[in-house]
Amino acid sequence: MAASLEAAAQILAAAPQESLAQVNWPEAFPYAPTVRFAMAHDDANIYIRFFVDEATTAALEMEDAHDVYKDSCVEMFLMPSDDGLYYNFEFNAAGTLCYSCRPGRQGAVLAPVECHAMVKRLTSLPHEVLEECHVEGGWSLTAAIPLTALFKHGDIRSLSGRQMKMNCFKCGDALSTIHYITWHPIATQKPDYHRPEYFVAVKFE
């Protein structure tokens, strides 16, 4: 894989993309921005790039480990083993990150500050406060998540040939048009991303 995050972003721009197109709660939250993502990996890092085109975008949170889900937010939830624990990586449009390891909605262990710093991020928008507005042409975010950031799974030393479970999401809980869309469907009565029974298996070849 690429030697730099900038090179990874270019590779992912030309890679096959998946769409976040599932509107699971259409009566309450019908709006669906256009969101796609592409993934790649090397032996020690997962690379993901999100492409977002939405009515309005906001990025108010500038400090890691805070509530980025209220901003324009893309998320990857990753379960690396069969122990039931998963990581919820949540990024706002400016690249601010919040992530934890948890068994479900309750019981989260917030990642240490040094682990947040391990996750490298590159955004098409500057890392500065963006009040809600329309961003012409949309925005993108690329992240490199190293195995060392999986702080509850230090025994995982290689991605090659490993199977994990995941799902990806887009939200914006404090935007003018609140929305909740997913990669794979979630069959709950109200929005709830913390449902690992709806994660799907992916294999890192």
Structural notes for this entry:
By secondary structure, the protein is mostly beta strands. The protein is built from two helices and 15 strands. The chain has helices spanning 5-13, 113-118, and strands at 18-19, 22-23, 34-41, 45-53, 57-59, 73-79, 86-92, 97-102, 109-110, 120-123, 130-133, 139-146, 163-171, 180-182, 200-203. Strands 2, 6, 7, 8, 9, 13, 14 and 15 form an eight-stranded antiparallel β-sheet that branches. It has a five-stranded antiparallel β-sheet with strand order 1-3-4-12-10. Strand 6 (73-79) and strand 7 (86-92) form a beta hairpin.
> In angstroms, what is the radius of gyration?
16 Å
What is the subunit organization of this protein?
single chain
**Could you tell me how far the N terminus lies from the C terminus, measured between alpha carbons in angstroms?**
13 Å
CATH topology: Immunoglobulin-like
What percent of residues are in strands?
Answer: 35-45%
Q: Which structural class best describes the helix and strand composition?
A: mainly beta
